[in-house]
Amino acid sequence: MFDLVEKFNADDPKSNFRLRKNEIIFSSLAINFLSLALPIMVLQVYDRIVLNHAMGTLWVLAIGVSVAVFLEFILRVARSYTTDWTGVVYEYILAANAIRLYLNADQAKLESQGAGIKLQNLITFQKLRDFFSGQALVTIVDIPFSILFLFIIFYLSGSLVIVPLLVAGLFAFLSWIIGDKLKAALIEQDDADDKRYSFIIEALQGIHSIKSYGIESVFKRRYESFAEQSSLATYRASLIGIQGYNLGVFFSQVIVIMVVIFGAPMVINGDFTSGTLTAVILFSGRLMMPIQKALFLWNNYQDYEIAYEKAEKIFSMPQIQRDKSLKGLEVKGNISIKNISFQDHTKTKILSGISLDIKAPDIVSIRGEDEFIKEKLLRILIGIEAPDSGSVEVDGVNVLSLTSEELVRHIGYMSSDNIVFQGSILENLCAFDENNEARAFEMAKLFNLDKEIALLPKGYNTQINDGFSDIVAPGVKQRIAVARVLLHKPKVLLFDNADKGLDREGYNHLIRVMSMLKSKVAMILVTDDLNIKRLADREYLLTDSGLKEVKAQDSSIYDRKVLSSIYTRPV
């Protein structure tokens, strides 16, 4: 199970995660040996000190046992600190590496997963933390001491050892059965939670449509159904888990009662002393502790196993391999699309044999009836997704080989979504890099954002987020997003209806900036706006069968066909 630790250590040499095995083993051995002090003291007190009235020996023995108990306490605290800190470090590094894998993943391969499932996958690291922090190692070290305690009980009381042995065996058998039931309940709970989280995120993503159609009550009832299933699954899993815990408490009492019931007659018959019986009772209680921990670990292992399988899937995600050595490449503004094809997650071919060469200051417009296909092409061009075949090269280098830090110097992607991140306006403009602040102010001035921002109470320090109750207007957010694309002055621009959401002033500034860049950069335009289309030197029609250049006379015919299809569409 520790191969996952080795995997992310190999992927990130700076992680420096190390399970402190020696410290945990040493402290666990010392704690178990020191725990023998109290039963041995009780045995000596009852059988020797009380009978001989040896008060001096009693004080010496009491001081020695007190020191042993204090040392045991200190070691337990130190071990808890070590395992807890190890668990925190493990969870942090694993989660950080998981995010890195998600960011570098081939997004097309992840489309079949709902957003809720991805969120649940990240939560699984909390379940793995305790298991990989050293608790399992502690239990493994403690288990042999159960055998030692049984041997001591046999040495002291002879056949009475059969009683704790049978009780502990029965407890282990019942706990094993509960563990199997718990695993099935946890799988059911996990599946229900995945569905509930996916529904919440998908509903939030389409909240505008839900409200515009007035179907909030319908979605509320649907969520109540998912919530009910999740609650019932959680209840069943919790009930089985509590049963396991209560079973351990019950058998801890049973083992003491059974030892007293069978041991008392043996004391009366003179088989051994009352001090021996008391020591056997204490050792029987100690005997149950490692067994309880082992079976508690077994029950929790059912949850860990499910979480581990999810973590394995995260670390097995298809990755787009970036070459970190490709730095400081000359930015020329050339992009070459070489025979790319792509199938969606349903194995439907939506792009086939797409080829195109563009060099700055070429500007081409791409249109088509299917918005999804156009967006997919741009995502492949920017290196977010990998094509099934073919390649895209920018300035002679495959876009999939470039890191995001290097790629933004070559290609800028203007999206229709005004993507902003929680933080200040300045942080969004400079992409959260203080070294870019000077250029961020320059871009803000270029889009006349400096005047808009000056009207805000905190200026550039105004906090924004991707919400609808924000103080910053959506049109200003879109200008911020577009300005951020030009921060690194890329020589290739991909324009995906980025004028949507802009107010009149923002639209005018966008047209002005793009006109200024016309003779300096290469552009691929996907837009319905005629003013922006006029910037293009050539126009292409994109369908699932390929990319075809549209002549001027064909363009007018195509426009009439589109308008005809719109106005004759059945109601």
Tell me what you see in this structure:
The chain is an alpha/beta fold and about 575 residues long. The protein has two domains: about 5-315, ABC transporter transmembrane region fold, CATH 1.20.1560.10; about 335-565, Rossmann fold (3-Layer(aba) Sandwich), CATH 3.40.50.300. Helices cover about 65% and strands about 10% of the residues. The protein contains 19 helices and twelve strands. It has helices at about 5-10, 20-35, 35-50, 55-105, 105-110, 115-155, 160-205, 205-210, 215-270, 275-315, 370-380, 405-410, 425-430, 435-445, 450-455, 475-485, 505-515, 530-535, 550-565; strands spanning about 335-345, 350-360, 365, 390-395, 395-400, 410-415, 425, 465, 490-495, 520-525, 540-545, 545-550. A six-stranded mixed sheet has the order 6-9-10-3-11-12. Strand 11 (about 540-545) and strand 12 (about 545-550) form a beta hairpin. The two termini are about 60 Å apart. Mean pLDDT is about 80; it is low at about 1-15 and about 555-570.
Helix content: 55-70%
Looking at CATH, which topology of the largest domain would you report?
A: ABC transporter transmembrane region fold
Helix and strand content put the structural class at alpha/beta
Q: CATH homologous superfamily name of the largest domain? A: ABC transporter type 1, transmembrane domain
Q: End-to-end span in angstroms?
A: 59 Å
Tell me about the biggest sheet?
6 strands, mixed
CATH class call of the largest domain? Mainly Alpha
Tally of contiguous helical segments: 19
Give start-end ranges of low-pLDDT stretches.
Answer: 1-15, 556-571
Number of domains: 2
Give the overall silhouette.
elongated
CATH architecture of the largest domain: Up-down Bundle
Radius of gyration: 34 Å
- Strand neighbour order, sheet with most strands: 6-9-10-3-11-12
Mean pLDDT: 80
List how many beta strands DSSP finds: 12
Strand content: 5-15%
